[in-house]
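Batch queue: ligand-bound targets. Current item pairs a single chain with zinc ion. No template structures supplied; prediction is de novo from sequence plus SMILES. Inputs echoed for audit trail.
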Amino acid sequence: MGAGALRLRFDRLIVAGPTEAAAAVARLLPKRLHGKLVETIPMAINASPREVLEKVRAVQERMEREHELEMIEELASELHESGKAVSGLEAVCRAVSEGRVWRLFYVKDYTASGVECSECGAVTPGSPDSCPVCGGTVEPVEQLIDRLAQLVLEQAGQVEMVAGPAAERLESFGSIAALLRF
Ligand SMILES: [Zn+2]
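Prediction returned. Tokens below.
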């Protein structure tokens, strides 16, 4: 690693190389770098830049999946009567309408349709003729999940679309859920 690389800011370090050499390098890392070490991966000395990139991407992908699973478990632990989370489309729609969602989670490819009230702005799944909150007129919303995500972002919340094991876990409580601000 040249001195130039050390001037770059980064928070994850992956050491790649022939197994023993990579392990030796990892052991010799200065402390400040060791804290950033994600893992060492086996790689041939003459690996092409493309191969390096692919392997790094695979590690990033796996870390992302692990992080998602942690977030979903944290969410699951709040899914009780006095907890700060809700699950299922109906409850999530209500929470978004009330501006209470801090972080929205949904399973990738999950879709639903619904309506949005032109008067109070409440979003509701299904196709009610009028707003269940205020009785106002409603407009159909084809891509309800996209609309929910947009509303959460407008409310300065965060949106996490999950895949893999986290998605399987999330499917067990309705494919959509949210951590609440209050
Ligand atoms: Zn309304």
